[in-house]
Amino acid sequence: MRKLIDKIVFSICSISTAIVLAILFIIIVYILLNGIFSINLAFFTSLPKPVGEEGGGMANAIVGSAIMVFIASLISIPISIGAAIYLAEFGKGYLATSVRFLVDVLAGVPSIVIGIFIYTLVVLPMKRFSAIAGALALAMIMIPTIVRATEEAIRLVPQTLREAGLALGAPYWRVTLEIVLVSARKAIISGVLLSIARIAGETAPLLFTALGNRFFVTVLDRPMSSLPVQIYSYAVSPYEDWHRQAWAATFLLVMFILVVNMSVRLFTRAKD
Amino acid sequence: MEKTLNSSSKDSVNLKPRKKRWLMSPASDKAFQKLTYSLAIFLFLLVTALVGSMIYNSKLSILKFGFGFVFSTTWDPVKEVFGALPFVYGTLVSSLIALLIAVPISLGVAIFLTEQCPYKLRPVVLTLVELLAAIPSVAYGLWGIFVLVPFMRNHVNPILEKVLGFLPLFKGPSYGIGLLTAGMILAVMIIPIITAISVSSLNAVPPTQREAALALGATRWEATQVVLLNARSGILGGVILGLGRALGETMAVTMVIGNRPEIATSLLAPAYTMASVIANEFTEATYDLYLHALIEIGILLFIITFIVQAIAQLFIRQITKGTKSHA
Lengths: 272, 327
Hints:
The complex is a heterodimer of chains A (about 270) and B (about 325). Chain A has helices spanning about 1-40, 40-45, 60-90, 95-110, 110-125, 130-155, 160-165, 170-185, 185-200, 225-235, 240-270. By secondary structure, chain A is mostly helical. The longest helix of chain A is centred in the first third of the chain and has 37 residues, at about 1-40. The two termini of chain A are about 45 Å apart. Mean pLDDT of chain B is about 85; it is low at about 1-15 and about 320-325. In chain B, helix 10 runs antiparallel to helix 11 (about 220-230). Chain B is mainly α. Chain B is flat, with a radius of gyration of 26 Å. Chain B has helices at about 1-15, 15-25, 25-55, 60-65, 70, 85-115, 120-135, 135-165, 180-205, 205-215, 220-230, 230-250, 250-255, 275-280, 290-325, and strands at about 75, 80. In chain B, strands 1-2 form a two-stranded antiparallel sheet. The longest helix of chain B is centred in the C-terminal third of the chain and has 39 residues, at about 290-325. The interface between A and B is large, with 99 and 94 residues.
């Protein structure tokens, strides 16, 4: 009897694993198939057509996403790495504990709430939706991921390396920047890449910061379209051709995210 | 390592003497520490500003409706009456459904990964499960609209109505969209989180526990129960963390829940969540009170997820402390 229960329980466990892997497989296959049959050259090169017209593409959304993700990285990487250095190297006592706690809080804040915050902080005073507001919202979502990854990576650097640098007469800050950060670079880079992959797919914080735009924009104080927002608005629209383009965009986005994720994992595992 | 040391000393040779002196002095260290310190303070201020700015920008609604806002069921922008209860209800119920589905499955996967799976396959399977967390919310939403919703409408919901139709939970017309569908999508999205944290807390249990149980003649499942008991606080932390994620999830839910601000007893009926009302109506809010009411919903969402996250961190920190003392 006990053996039977044992068998039953473990087969349930295997089955649930099989279910989860099957779900992953089904979702990816749907995105792949629908995406491959939907994507074409016009998708990459042309602008969206007005409502109801067939054809068109998402050139502006692809460029918009790239611009906003790039600016978000420019803003968040230095801030996060600096703050992480403080937490890992100097951070003791009450302030460090509360900053660490707040970083955890920030990581748990739903991204749509970040969107509201940037709306009140940037969009309301500017009286206009803008690409920079979208980039700031994305940057805020990146910060906790990078801070955590960097702090952990810095903590893993052996103390003897720091001592060796200090013994050579280098000041502490150069030891930190040129020895500690350099030896921790792998983990830091993978943290940054994973957070870039994450924000590339974020939709909610862009809905009312960058809004979206039918035209090709590269100025930062105007509304700018992005792939995820475009997917959303096309998916909930009633037009067949827009659904097709939503699948194509999802294909592009998911491929980008999966490739980044897989390569980060392979890269870090191979080096360990 | 050698390389960096060499290059750094070369740099300092090239610097002008006076500049070099400052760069090598303790004063430069102080400045560097100040710089990183101010960045940490900046993060502190950022979160404070987040709360402050949202409260300030929802003052009209907070002053007008007070605490009644949370308990009122009317959401009528035309008559300028706003109550958040239908959204709170939708958020809580869809997240609960997600937990009911995701927790057993995640535990099964975690036990499979720590007890059964061949050692070499473990990282592969775990990576695949975690890939589910990398897929963006809007992609889940798109898949939900075009694959899951028709599937629920044509296959799952009719069966549910036939078998469980005597319960009020499964009565009424089904459109495929609704609380149940949203809960299922959410379940898929939080399975990787719960699984990952459960796996690490199961791995944190010292192997001697399992060996002792096996030595006493326990079957593998009985030994696993001992391990599960030891890992319970970490697993609970993972479950609560998953709940936090489900509560704040926006896009996928917005696309499949039906977006109707009513409290229906049926799980097959369309509903609305806090995150999705913000996503849908924020840019349509034509007057200040409307906007402030939406931001107040954002504050409610923030408070709920904050509490949930804080509890989860408490549990998860316990296991990391536990493993350190064992090691």
